[in-house]
From TrEMBL:
Membrane spanning residue stretches: 21-40, 60-91
SUPFAM superfamilies membership: Multidrug resistance efflux transporter EmrE
Entry superkingdom: Eukaryota
Keywords: Cell membrane, Endosome, Ion transport, Magnesium, Membrane, Transmembrane, Transmembrane helix, Transport
GO-annotated molecular function: magnesium ion transmembrane transporter activity
Similarity-based family: Belongs to the NIPA (TC 2.A.7) family.
Localization in the cell: Cell membrane; Early endosome
Assembly and interaction partners: Homodimer.
UniProt protein name: Probable magnesium transporter
Record's keyword annotation contains Transmembrane: yes
GO cellular component: early endosome; plasma membrane
């Protein structure tokens, strides 16, 4: 749950937050604050060459490759699981 949902649920729906939920919210706030305070100063890019130099750095390339790999693997796994369940359901319902 994101913080906005938690706050809205508390005030609008009168939901009570348990201790672990409060701890989670606190950790989200502290983590966001730490990330913002330690962020690098923003650098304005002025040319396509600068963007290209950033795009071919090994860290960015490995991150991009791993993200694409995970998307493909999880996509196939989810599709196969859903299709397998649908096939089994179809056989169970209509093959009598």
């Amino acid at each position: 749950m994101d913080m906005g949902s938690v706050v809205l649920a508390h005030f609008l729906l009168k939901e009570k937050l348990q201790k672990m939920g409060m701890l989670g919210c606190l950790l989200c706030i502290v983590g966001s604050t730490v990330v913002v305070l330690h962020a690098l100063e923003e650098k304005f890019l002025t040319s396509v060459q600068e963007i290209w130099e950033l795009a071919i750095q090994p860290a960015f390339l490995s991150y991009t490759a791993s993200a694409i790999h995970c998307d493909i693997v999880f996509g196939f796994v989810l599709v196969l699981l859903i299709v397998a369940r649908l096939i089994l359901w179809f056989i169970q319902e209509y093959a009598r």
